[in-house]
Amino acid sequence: MKRNLIILIALLGITSCFAANPIAGMLERIDKGASSKFAIQLQKSDIDFFELDQKGEKVVVRGNTYVNIATGINWYLKYYAGINLTWNCMSAKLPNKLPVVAKKERHETNLALRYDFNYCTFSYSMAFWDWARWEKEIDWMALHGVNMPLAAVGHECVWRNMLLRLGYSKEDINSFIAGPAFLAWWEMNNLEGWGGPNTDSWYAQQEALQKSILKRMYEYGMSPVLPGYSGMVPSKLDIGSRVASANADDNNSSTAESAQSSIAKWNGFDRPAVLMPDDPMFNKIADLFYEETTRLYGKAKYYSMDPFHEAKNLPADLDFGKAGKVLMDAMKRVNKDAVWVIQGWTENPRPEMLAALKPGDLLILDLFSECRPMWGIPSLWKRDEGYGDHEWLFCMLENFGANVGMHGRMDQLLNNFYLTKTDSHAKHIKGIGFTMEGSETNPVMYELMSELIWRPEKITKEEWISTYVKARYGADNDAIQKAWAILVEGIYNCPQGNNQQGPHESIFCSRPSLTSFQASSWSKMCNYYDPNSTMDAAKLMLSVADDFKGNNNFEYDLIDICRQAIADRARIVYSHTVADFNCFNKKDFTTGYKEFLRLLLLQDELLSARSEFRVGRWIEMAKSRGNTQEEKNLYEWNARVQITTWGNRYCADTGKLRDYAHKEWNGLLKDYYYPRWVKYWSVLQDEMDGKLPVMPTGNSSTKPYDNPAMNIDWYAMEEPWTLSHNIYAADSAGDPIEIAKRIFSQL
How does pLDDT run across 332-357, given as a tens digit for each residue? Predict the structure, then answer.
């Protein structure tokens, strides 16, 4: 009897251990039965490591954390099994018998912190994700070594509950909290209310979703970063009297005079007010905020705050050092060991704040390390003393606005990262971070970035890409190697001195003009690669495409490379067509603009081949979060507006937000961008035909405002699409390889 009891206890212990092991669940989601092919060993270590080994027919993966073990599994799958798991596919069919690890392989790193996400990511990419999609993302994070992700889902629930406790009505709250596709900029103190009002069901499902997200993150041993409190208050609500009534026993009658006296603007939107840290109400609001955060989601080790983010016209006598101390003290009251995570972006964090805060209490995200590092090496945003004695992370921003386009800074990324090994300004580096505004693009850059910390030797982009190609497609091929060699020397190698924000933007997505170049207002785009090079790469991929039918990664990349090639060809056609207009070369102008429009429609057709490039995927995802038709309509409107006009007429045009989050997507190209270009070319054709005043050029005395081509009301053309409810299919249609071959036969 006693022996049976011992056996039962042992079995229960094994079962409990297995249930608590998140790696088994991850492996089963990758491929049913995969967990039985690996032996997972969690071992204590003072340094982060993973180790690959063999025991019988099982592959042994050791590590000191579950995240590091997952990273080891990812390394094995890529470099032994030829399986590359990424956003476009997080599952695979593993061989019945896994390739043998002939010699034990060990990787270590002293960069123990690996961050993920930008607040913008939660709106540009994740605004409408459900648990099924989040579960895949958390697995992706673990496989790529992330152990401290920003966890901002459901942050609006904290604010809603806090304001309700202060006695505000739902109507008051709805005028403050933004809608689903714009929550990031509300959280960053940039706008109020836009995209709302949110329904009770939205808050309920977001709270439940965040709790599921946090549960899985903690199972992996991750340390989620929760939003902290930096002084935001509603600009149109009397926060002072509410706090006074909620705390009537302390006889405080402050009326939030320290909040901005007049409503500030951000690209045309009303900004929330800022409650200055020296106001007596600040601590009361902060304590309420952290109390509600803890009640909903528990205490965190890390809290994210970016006070005075992109703020102008701050009080001249604002003491940044004192403000930082108050913010830190409020956070420490909820967790004495908590660390403040802050973005290194433009003027933040202010030097006075750095000087006032104790090293170890602050962790700075050097947000754009691959292009504009602030940690001390030469760059547009160089800080001579870096971050002083404060700890920081080397981060790759890579993408702005979740724009579609191939882009990377491989040499710059490698150079800047390797400088952290020798430069004295980097002595307090603690890890790396992915800080993209939008995800699910350019997976090659995230694979490279995630591997750097585990490779003891320096590598070149040429050395690395050859191994990546084999891992990406599970086979080696000369034509594909040549294609990627072209890409990494060109479009994936944006050089130092080019400070553009994100991808080389498609001319199709630009508001038409004779000087169209970039699509968004702040991209700072500058030509840096031969546009014919992407066509060469596409042709090489197509030449061997039949050999890779059914290979998901190849088919995704094929469509993406072909898309880039067509966009680059169209930019050349556009430039020639504008030159023909300026020369009054009517015949070639007409031929040119018709070719431009033909390419645009071919691009739309090409992108129907993959769901990742369909506007229907984004819209249907948004609608699926609604429980009623009214909710579905609101979420669809959020989804449509964000990727087009972004704001109302004033914010879109005068505020310059329109097309910031533009997408080269099937459906959107044909129904949104195509009509803009048809309208513009037709007006220019009418000018060429003598039906309208001629566009002023050179020293022409014609007044610009007298010319129809310079006075098209673009917003009036664009807004109707944001209000529409026409259906777009979310799933791909047809064979991607056959579609790509057919499209390219017409070029």
Answer: 999 999 999 999 999 999 999 999 99
Distance between CA atoms of residues 272 and 285, nearest Å: 15
* CA quadruple 22, 25, 27, 28: dihedral, nearest 10: 180
Quick one: DSSP state of residue 37?
A: G
Output the pTM of the full model.
0.94
The answer to which of 40-54, 252-266, 415-429 has the lowest mean pLDDT is: 252-266
Give the pLDDT confidence score for residue 108 in this predicted structure. Answer: 98
All residues at 6 or more sequence positions from 116 whose CB lies less than 8 Å from its CB, including other chains? 141, 146, 148, 149, 150, 433, 434
Is the pLDDT reported for residue 252 higher than 50? no
Q: How far apart are CA 166 and CA 248, in angstroms?
A: 12
The token pair at 95 is 């061989």
Torsion of CA 730, 731, 734, 736, to 10 degrees: 100
Of 541, 594, 544, 600, which is closest to residue 569 (Cα–Cα)?
Answer: 600
Query: pLDDT tens-digit profile of 500-520?
Result: 999 999 999 999 999 999 999
Do 407 and 503 contact (CB within 8 A), yes or no?
yes
**Among 559, 503, 561, 506, which Cα is nearest to 677's?**
506
What is the predicted pLDDT for the residue at 253?
36
d(CA 343, CA 345): 6
* 722 neighbors 645 (Cβ within 8 angstroms): yes
Longest dimension (CA), the chain: 105
Among the listed residues 680, 505, 691, 713, the one whose alpha carbon sits nearest the alpha carbon of residue 593: 680
CA distance 592 to 684: 12
Show the tokens assigned to 632: 């579905």
* Contact yes or no for 662/401 (Cβ under 8 A): yes
Q: In the block, which residue shows the tokens 């050859």?
A: 466
**So what's the pLDDT on residue 223?**
98
SS3 342: strand
